[in-house]
Design goal:
By secondary structure, the protein is of the alpha/beta class. It is about 30% helix and about 30% strand. The strands form three sheets. Strands 1, 4, 5, 6, 7, 8, 9, 10 and 11 form a nine-stranded mixed beta sheet that branches. A two-stranded antiparallel sheet has the order 2-3.
Length: about 200
């Protein structure tokens, strides 16, 4: 269920994101661009239905999206991945799950939830970094409890440990990432990674 983005532009963007000299303003632009590629990849299999329209020349039976989306960023870093989805899918619903990782124990805790109705929607969780998988697992559990039955996880960089954790606990949840990195450090940071995504995104 792991899908690694295979696109030369994706490689180009991730390399720039990794560069520690990339300024926050450029980092935000790069995050948007890689988010667009990932949004397209994660929605490649959306169902469509017939729609009859009249072109300037004649009537035509085309295809239209047949399922609505809900995108759920894990706060705060996930906010940097929302706009590509709202730009591509204007009718998308946006919810929020606030999780915070303890930098000593690497264990995530929930501090905020605000969700739209999820029944019957394709739900896409966005979180730039899939490290231990702790935050992703908490968010997925929250969404299952809220009635979501079709969930995808989209991230920019993933560690094998986090991928394994999600696949073990939620084997039916596909994971879309722009890069599968080598491993986690002793402090549970992704290597080679790109540092703290939220700090780099917001210049904190």
């Amino acid at each position: 269920m792991l899908h690694v983005l295979n696109h030369p532009l994706g490689d180009h963007l991730v390399t720039q994101l990794r560069d520690h000299t990339t300024e926050p303003s450029t980092f935000r632009t790069l995050s948007y661009h890689i988010g667009l590629l990932l949004a397209l990849e994660a929605t490649r299999d959306l169902p469509t239905g017939d729609r009859i329209v009249s072109t300037p020349m004649e009537r035509h039976t085309g295809r239209m999206l047949a399922k609505t989306l809900a995108v759920i960023p894990i706060l705060r870093a996930g906010l940097g991945m929302v706009q590509p989805f709202t730009d591509l899918f204007p009718d998308v619903s946006v919810g929020y799950v606030g999780l915070e990782r303890d930098h000593t124990t690497a264990i995530a805790r929930s501090y905020y939830q605000k969700l739209p109705p999820l029944a019957g929607k394709r739900v896409i969780v966005v979180d730039p970094m899939l490290a231990t998988g702790g935050s992703a697992l908490l968010a997925l559990n929250v969404l299952h409890d809220a009635g979501a039955t079709e969930i995808s996880l989209v991230c920019i960089v993933a560690a094998p440990e986090g991928v394994k954790a999600v696949e073990t606990a939620h084997p039916r949840v596909p994971i879309f990432t722009a890069a599968l990195d080598r491993e986690l450090s002793a402090n549970k940071y992704i290597l080679p990674g790109l540092g703290d995504f939220g700090d780099r995104l917001y210049g904190t």
